[in-house]
């Protein structure tokens, strides 16, 4: 058919092409426009990652894995066979359960789990991290991808997290800072032959941000309702400074096996991407704004990347071997390592101060929230907490934190293996140490043989009684 058509165009002339007259009339105007759009679309799609890596058996944690770029990354990692722990605000949500089920079905990967870690609350982050670290044998962790973020549109009043911090600062910066620093023991305990990669999503808006050491979290300064990107940008700038300092700390840590640091933390700027938060930001969270967004959609379609294109630099960060040879703390953009970064990110003194001040702020906020929680606790919650604590103390699979806990766990073990329920590390109720020495065993033997002798006497007496 195409051959016949081409032959007729060749022999009978171009007038056989359908709508040839219209093409002749409008073509000279339309063709340059179509070419420009095609070239523009090609240019704005950004760079494509060309690296590959087998992820079977690897374990990744991801925040923001339920939407936008994070959801696409989660899909890719699951397709490659990785085990995924998706950190979500809530796990008792039927939507989350369905999302995980669908992801498992689509990728034929059953190793996808959701864990509650609401970055809006430092307590929720601590609860998750404690649960993760409580495992007696350290769990495998090949990387953490920090994709969750909150971008508040214009003209929306200041919003706060559970701990009373401005929301963008709280979720984007403080939540991720807390999560990654709490996971430090888990990251450090990975075997030296494992590439451990942490990726933190950043944004070009960091160039609009600022760092005020006296007021890191925009608590004292007036919230810029008409320019919320200043706070969003500041949260991303702080993340950049934190990434550098955290990488430095990890590099300085001397492993017991003397192997070099196998953890790399990098920042990823995905570019401008069509995601739910971009849509909300452009439409300013209003119906009219949304309508305008839909009407002007071709513009956004042309200039903004799709989520698949936005995820490319994350893949580069996860797969490119060169990144494990670098010092970490790099800014990745368009599948490249950027050499030009904001001077604050490279300021060593600032890095230390930001890290220190944030740690202090978190301590203060956690204490405040604990007091608040205690005040608002019901009797039932107190009871539930006590029971959970007792269960944790008795669970022999969880590493004990105090000698008292160790004793409790040993007692549980003793009763499980049937050597009584002793009350201390050295002795059980029968006076038998948990780890007996030879003299103890000798005593035990003597005791049991004398017991046997008396038992024997008793039985012989019984026998002789019987004979009589
Ligand atoms: N889109 C862009 O143009 C662009 C540009 C530069 C940088 N970035 C960065 O790229 C990353 C991904 O952006 P995106 O546009 O794909 O985001 P998105 O579609 O808006 O998704 C945000 C994700 O963050 C999660 N999240 C929000 N608050 C949370 C909380 N309190 N606890 C736990 N999770 C929470 C959301 O979970 P729920 O599903 O529960 O809401 C959602 O999965 C962000 O870090 C963003 O700053 C994006």
* Helix/strand class: alpha/beta
Average of pLDDT: 88
- Provide a count of the helices: 18
> What hetero molecules are bound to the protein chains?
NADP nicotinamide-adenine-dinucleotide phosphate
CATH superfamily of the largest domain: NAD(P)-binding Rossmann-like Domain
Helix content: 40-55%
InterPro entries: NAD(P)-bd_dom_sf, SDR_fam
Transmembrane segments: 281-302
Pfam family, one: adh_short
Keywords: Membrane, Oxidoreductase, Transmembrane, Transmembrane helix
Identify the notable features of this structure and list them briefly.
alpha/beta, Rossmann fold, eight-stranded mixed β-sheet, 468 residues, 18 helices, NAD(P)-bd_dom_sf, Ketoreductase (KR) domain-containing protein, globular, 8 strands, binds NADP nicotinamide-adenine-dinucleotide phosphate, 3 domains, single chain
Write up what this structure looks like.
The chain has 18 helices and 8 strands. The protein is of the alpha/beta class and about 475 residues long. The chain has 3 domains: about 1-45, no CATH class; about 60-270 and about 305-370, NAD(P)-binding Rossmann-like Domain (Rossmann fold, 3-Layer(aba) Sandwich); about 380-455, no CATH class. Helix 8 links the parallel strand 5 (about 195-200) and strand 6 (about 265-270). Helix 5 (about 120-135) packs parallel to helix 6 and helix 6 (about 165-180) runs parallel beside helix 8 (about 230-250). The longest helix is centred in the last third of the chain and has 30 residues, at about 440-465. It is globular and about 120 Å long. Residues about 420-430 and about 460-468 have low confidence and may be disordered. The structure holds NADP nicotinamide-adenine-dinucleotide phosphate. NADP nicotinamide-adenine-dinucleotide phosphate binds near residues 64, 150 and 201. Belongs to the short-chain dehydrogenases/reductases (SDR) family. One of its GO terms (molecular function) is oxidoreductase activity.
